[in-house]
Amino acid sequence: MNKDRGTQPFRDHWEVVMRTAQLESHEIFQLLRPEQVNILSTAAEEVRFPAGQTVFLRGERADDFFVVLDGQVALRMVSLDGVSVLIDEVTEGAIFGSCVCFQIDTYSLTAQCTEDSRILKIKAATLKKLMDDDLVMGYAIQTLISRVYFKRYIDTMRKLQAIVQSIPLEAV
Q1: Which of 86, 89, 110, 148 is the most buried (most CB within 10 A)?
Q2: What is the CATH number of the domain that holds 70?
């Protein structure tokens, strides 16, 4: 006799409850109404990645949006010849992955865990639909996400500037 018979619906319900709590605790998802959080929680799953495991590769189809629950993820730009440049390291609470605001079809960076990590993986299409259906909330979320991505861009530009300034130049 299977001891687990009848417990799967409870587990499924408990996982949705946990994902809902995880979403509600994040600044971006606090902009959602309870019924919107419930919809999004059914399109989300918690995924565990050991250190060194890749979450996604640059150029892969960008179907998902991610939130770091705990751990650390390196976001790298990897060239075709294998040269890797660290763009950012994100930790608990950080968002990364598909930018539903800009409708970019592929990931522009590679994401790899540098520590054992728990990550909330959210279907970008579900969040996009919620944003399209509620334009006020959608605009507010788009503003927050854009702010995060723009800060990441500015930080990257500062790193690049520091690298360029460290190159010795000679007057000719």
Answers
A1: 110
A2: 2.60.120.10
